[in-house]
Amino acid sequence: MKKIIACIVLVVSFSFMSAQHMNNTKLGEILTKNSDTIQGQAGNWRFAVNDKLFICLTDEKNNRMRIISPITEVSNIDDKTLKNCLTANFHTALDVKYAISDAILWSVFTHPLKELSETQVVDAVAQVYNANYTFGTIYSSTNLSFPGAIGQEKEKPKEQKLPKQKI
Predict the structure, then answer these.
(1) Helix, strand or coil for residue 161?
(2) Is residue 106 within 8 Å of residue 71, measured between CB atoms?
(3) How far is CA 62 from CA 3, 31, 161, in A?
(4) Distance between CA atoms of residues 13 and 135, nearest Å
(5) Which of 40, 45, 91, 109 is deepest in the core (most CB within 10 A)?
């Protein structure tokens, strides 16, 4: 039993020692290194990757960060496209989501700031980019997908008659 407790203490202490402690300074350096152009100040950056616009907003006090990229005005979206976005949020968008704000459809990644690693930031930018880029086609942030992705929908189940219940 003592060995198990010692192992648990060791694992927990190691996880605390390896905490990322991301902040605006580190995040700004990572974004600068991984973007084509960048402007703004700590906690509020605009940058571009392959001609796609990104915005990164942070709130160090509340430990939040989001990377967003505008896709299109909501007025350009029909019901089928909106349904595809919602389906993708479940199956193919993975860590990124399609979201609407201020009459714009965005690809969005949100995460606690302090817990981010550099690898996660780079991956987040790639996923936001891919969700934006594949909008209107496969609606995907990576090459992974869960069953039921767009284009993989199952046939509608046949209507079943349920037995009447006594109320």
Answers:
(1) coil
(2) yes
(3) 38, 21, 51
(4) 43
(5) 109
Q: Are 35 and 48 in contact (CB under 8 A)?
A: yes
Q: Is 118 exposed, middle or buried (0-12, 13-18, 19+ CB in 10 A)?
A: middle
| H/E stretch holding 59 | strand 52-59
CA distance 129 to 141: 7
CA distances from 105 to 43, 82, 90, 92, 131 (A): 22, 10, 17, 17, 11
Whether the predicted pLDDT of 2 surpasses 60: no
* Contacts with 21 (C-beta within 8 Å, 6 or more apart), sequence order: 114
Share of the chain above pLDDT 90, in %: 72
Asked whether 113 and 64 are in contact (CB, 8 A), the reply is yes
Strand order in the sheet with 97-101: 37-41, 44-49, 52-59, 64-73, 104-111, 97-101
Helix (H, G, I), strand (E, B) or coil at 138: coil
Cα–Cα dist 58/27, whole Å = 9
What is the value of pTM for the model shown? 0.77
Higher pLDDT, 60 or 151: 60
